[in-house]
Amino acid sequence: MPRPTAAQLAYGSCTVILSTLAMLLLSQTSSGVGVVVIALSALALGLLVAMTVPAPRATAPTSPPSGAVTEQRVPVQRETVSAARSSEPVRERA
Questions:
Q1: Model confidence pLDDT, tens digit, residues 50-76
Q2: How many CB atoms lie within 10 A of CB 41?
Q3: What is the number of domains present in the chain?
């Protein structure tokens, strides 16, 4: 299962909070069982909303046009110059 995106987390969290408040205010329940049922239904609704938010699409790599000439690059081998070979002395700051 892929990880949820920031948008999915935000929409799901907002849904849980707002739907819990709305259901508690509309039902005017004061029993513990009623609050638990409302909380569980709000969590289920938030999960449903978070999973239905469209995930970002993976971009397909673009291929060059068939008539285009592709450039081939060859890595250059570079020589390293050691500090002992340099003609100037190294000056360090005090």
A1: 888 776 676 666 665 666 666 778 778
A2: 13
A3: 1
